[in-house]
Amino acid sequence: MMKTLLLVETLCVLGAVGCGAPDGSLPVDDRQPSLETSGEDLTTSNCTQLTPASVKASGDDGTGSIATNTLDDQLTTRWSSLGKGQWIDYDLGATKSVGAMSVAWHEGNTRVNTFTISVSPDGITYTQVYSGKSKGSTTAAETYTFTPVNTRRVRLTVQGNTLNDWASVAEARPCAGTTTSPTPGGIVWRGDFESGSRGQWDGTEMVSADRLQVVSSPVREGGYALKATVRQGDDPINASGNRNELVKMTKEAAGSEYWYRWSTRFAPDFPSVKTWQLFTQWHHDGCCGSPPVEFYVYGEEMRLNIGGSPGTIVWRTPLVRNTWHDFIFHVKWSPNASVGFVELYYDGNLVLPKRNIATQFSGMRNYLKIGLYRNDTVAPVGVVYHDGWVMGRTLADVLDANYKLK
After folding, report:
1. Domains: count for the chain
2. Mean per-residue pLDDT pooled into runs of 10, the chain (406 residues)
3. Judging by beta carbons within 10 Å of its beta carbon (0-12, 13-18, 19+), is residue 102 exposed, middle or buried?
C-alpha cells in the first residue's frame, strides 16, 4: 500500500454524463463515478498516516463500492452505503495514539457531509471524539483533529449529506497523535474492585457488610464488581434518607481537572418511584445540604444534577434495568461558573458537550461516594451494581485503564 493519500481535486467529465443525478431521478451513489484525477499523489495535509490492518463497514451499495476501496489510494473508487448512521471502521491492528482522521469525500465539492468520529480499544465500546461537517467545496482530503487518544479502532459514522442520505468516502486514513511523554501518575486512582475487596476505597457508610458486597457476577470488566443493596430503614450515619455507600476521599481542589470512568447496572426490580435515588455523587466536605454533583434516578429517568438543591439538571435519559451503563465524566472543579465545567459521555456517545457551570461550593473540596442513597419513603429493596471505577488526568488515561470487557 502507498504511504500517501490522493488529495487532488476530481473533475467532472464534460459531455453526455454530467455531475449529479439526472433530473427527476432519486439521488443515488451506486453509479460509476464520471471522474478523472490528475495522477499526482500528494502527502496528506496535517496527517501522519497510520496504516490500518483491516477495514469493515455497516454495508455497501452492492455494486462494488466496498470498504477496502477507501485504502487503495484511488479517488476514482469509493465506499458507499445508503442511510443515515452508516459507518466505516478501521482496525489499526494494535493500540496506537490517534489524533486526527483524514477523509476524501466522494463528490465532496458538491455536498456537505455530517459525521462523527469515534474510537474504541476493543471494537465493543466506542467513544465519540469528533463531530462536524465537511467543507462541501473540495474532493481533496480534509483532516479533522481531536485530542489524541490511545485506541485500536477508529470509526467514521455518516449522518447523510446536503443532497441525500448516502455515506460515500473515496479515501480515509487515521492520523497519528502528537507524541508526548505521558504525565507521570496520569491515572490518579483505580477503584475497580479487582482486589476482590473494598480495599481500594477509603471507607464505607453501611449498616452491615452484606449491603456492600464485592461479587463475581454480574461484572462489566475484570473479575469483580460491587453490589450495593438498600432496604428501607438503612441509616448508618443517622442522617437524612437511607443509604449504603462507599467513600473515596478524592479531595478535588478548586481549579483541578479530572476524567472519571465507571459502569452502573440496575437490578431488574429496581424501584420505580417519583423521588430521588442517588447512585453516584461528589459531596462537599462542609456540613449539610445536597451535593454539588449527583447522578440519580427519578421515576424512570437517570439524571445528572449540578449545584445542590434545587440545582440544574444538565442531562437525563430513560432508565434501562438489567444492563450496564457506561459513563465517562470530565470535570473542571471550581465554584466559579465561568471556570468550572462538566462534559459527559454515556455508552460511548458524547451526550453532554462541555458546559460551563459551578461544580463546587465556595471554599470546599469534593469527595466521591457511590452505592445507593435514596429517600427514606422508598419501601422496596433497591440493588445497584458498580464496576470499573478509574480517575485520571486525560481521556486516554481512563480509556486504557484496565479496560478489558467480558
Report:
1. 2
2. 41 34 35 35 68 95 95 92 96 90 94 93 83 91 86 94 96 79 67 93 95 97 96 94 95 92 98 98 87 97 94 97 97 94 95 96 93 97 97 87 40
3. buried
| C-beta atoms surrounding 395 within 10 Å | 22
Terminal Cα distance for the chain, rounded: 35
The span from the CA of 290 to the CA of 294, in Å, is 9
| pTM, rounded to two decimals | 0.58
Select from 54, 60, 42, 48 the least CA-distant residue to 5. Answer: 42
Residue type at position 126: Y
Evaluate whether residue 223 is within a structural domain. Answer: yes
pLDDT of residue 45: 66
Residue 2 included in any domain: no
3-state secondary structure of 210: helix
Torsion of CA 367, 370, 376, 379, to 10 degrees: 180
180 three-state secondary structure: coil
Q: Are residues 105 and 252 in the same domain?
A: no
Closest by Cα among 114, 95, 112 to 154: 95
Residues 217 and 343 reside in one and the same domain: yes
Range of the domain at 147: 11-176
Judge contact between 239 and 259, C-beta under 8 A: no
**Residue 182 domain flag:** no
Question: In 242-378, which ranges are E strands?
Answer: 242-252, 257-266, 276-284, 293-298, 301-306, 312-318, 324-332, 341-346, 349-356, 366-374
Note whether 231 and 266 are same-domain residues. yes
pLDDT of 120: 87
Beta bridge partners of 11: 36
Say yes or no: 361 and 393 in one domain: yes
| In a domain? residue 100 | yes
d(C-alpha 190, C-alpha 198), whole Å: 12
If DSSP codes are grouped into helix, strand and coil, which group holds residue 371? strand
Of 76, 73, 130, 66, nearest in space to 107 by CA: 76
CA 396/CA 178 separation, integer angstroms = 13
375 in the same domain as 265:
yes
Given this model, what pLDDT does residue 19 score? 34
Asked if 224 and 258 touch (Cβ cutoff 8 Å), the reply is: no
Q: What kind and span of H or E run contains 382?
A: strand 382-392
Grid cell locating 279: 447512585
